[in-house]
Amino acid sequence: MRPRFLIPLFAALAAVSGCLQTDKQETAVNWQSDRDRVRNAKPAPDIPILPKTYFAAGRMLEGQGNLLGALAQYEKAIAANPRYSQAYSRLGILYQRLGRYEDADQAFFNGISAVPSSASLRNNFGYCLFLQRRTAEAMEQYRAALEIRPGFAKARMNLASLLAHSGRGAESYTEFCRVVSSDVAYYNIGVIRLEAGDFKSATNHFHEAIEINPELTAATEGLRRATALARKSDPGLAPSLAGSIEIDEESPVPLP
Q1: Where are the domains positioned within the chain?
Q2: What's the topology of domain 48-116?
Q3: What share of the chain is helix, strand, coil (3-state, %, to 5)?
Q4: Do 50 and 80 form a contact (C-beta atoms < 8 A)?
Q5: How confident is the model over 57-91, as pLDDT tens digits?
Q6: N or C terminus: fewer CB in 10 A for the chain?
Q7: pLDDT per residue over 31-45, tens digit each?
Q8: What DSSP letter does each residue of 26-65 carry, written as one string?
Q9: How many angstroms separate the CA atoms of 93 and 86, rounded?
């Protein structure tokens, strides 16, 4: 009777043994497949850095005072997007701050060539030219900016200021009045002529501002300042108002 019990037992052991062998084989195959997949896998493509990321890095470096580092980031932004007008502007402005005007001019020129519809680029280029005393060219850029965007207040203010610097008071007044009230327009021209050492014109414009708005204290103070400086340079030019107080040191020419 014993053989009848032994045969099923051996059969069961054989079945278990066969099962264990199959698991080992499958494990070996799976491991081999994983290794082959790793070996044959292609490297993941590099994720491109967006132009705006380079630009943001440049702005951050500017804030930290690292202008050269910022320049490099703006160059990368332009390389990634050759029509990135803001990057051209910041590049030109930084070169301007570093006194590298040829590089600044080139940056603005490149930007305008790439994005001719950008009024901001032309306005900022105009201001750069103004700093170089290239008045006619600066005026051309301001007018071009206003042709693109007639409601561009900053370019209008810059054009009006440049006209005042050039002694073209009537034209300057017309342009200022498109942005500010008439009393403020006269005041702005007075400040610019005062800075230019033209005390007679300055006092006249301050008088005009006060006549329109007697409560414009900045104009009254400007008039007193102009009076004092005129008396110092030539007593015969001094108007009846005397006294000397400091005027607002903020330039009427907006920065880009």
Answers
A1: 48-116
A2: 1.25.40
A3: 75, 0, 25
A4: yes
A5: 999 999 999 999 999 999 999 999 999 999 999 99
A6: N
A7: 566 566 656 656 656
A8: HHHHHHHHHHHHHHHPPPPPPPPPPHHHHHHHHHHHHHTT
A9: 10
